[in-house]
Amino acid sequence: MATFGNPALVLNADFQPLSYYPLSLWSWQDTIKAVFLNRVSIIENYNKEVHSPSLTIKLPSVIALKDYVSPRRSPAFTRFNVFLRDNFTCQYCYENFSANELTFDHLLPKFTGGKTTWTNVVSACTSCNVKKGRRLLKYTDMYLKKKPMRPSSEKLQKNGRNFPPNYLHESWRDYLYWDTELEN
Ligand SMILES: [Zn+2]
Hints:
Blueprint: E1 8-11, E2 25-26, H1 28-36, E3 40-51, E4 56-65, H2 79-85, E5 102-106, E6 121-125, H3 126-132, H4 153-160
Parallel strand pairs: 1-4
Antiparallel strand pairs: 1-2, 3-4, 5-6
Bound molecules: zinc ion.
Zinc ion (ZN) binds at residues 90, 92-93, 95, 124-125, 127-128.
C-alpha cells in the first residue's frame, strides 16, 4: 500500500477550502485520525482502501471540518503572505515570479529606519531590487504597481484562487473555484 499521496482536500464547515494557496490538503494518515476523532465529515472517497486487522476503510479524498474555523482577522506577516498579497508580481516591473525569485524591497530603506512591515515592504524581483538599490523610489524612474497595505484574510484567500496547483484530483474540483482557467 502506498504511504505517500492520496491527500484529502480539507474544507471548512461552510464547504469552502480552508486555504487555496497553499491548497489545504492533509495526508491520508492525518485524515483517518481526524475521522476517528469525529472532527471531520467524509464528503468524497478515493477508490483506494486501507486495512487494519479489524476494518477496511476507503481513503477520504474530500473532508469537511465539523466545527467552523474562523479565518484569522489579520493574516500573519510572512514572506509567503507578502508575495501572495502582491500576487507573486514584482511591484516594479509587473512581471510574475515564483516565491524563490522574489525578494522584499523596503520602500523606506532599512538603513534609514524603514521597518519590515506590511506597509513598507513590497515584492520585487532580484534585478528590480538591485536596480532600486538603497534609494527612495522618488529618486528612481521606477513606479510602484500598488501601494502596499495590510491585507485581509479574505483578500489573501481570493488571491490564492489565481494559483491552482499542478495536481488536482477530480473529486476536488466541485469544491474549488479558480480565477484562472484550468487546462484539461
Ligand atoms: Zn522586477
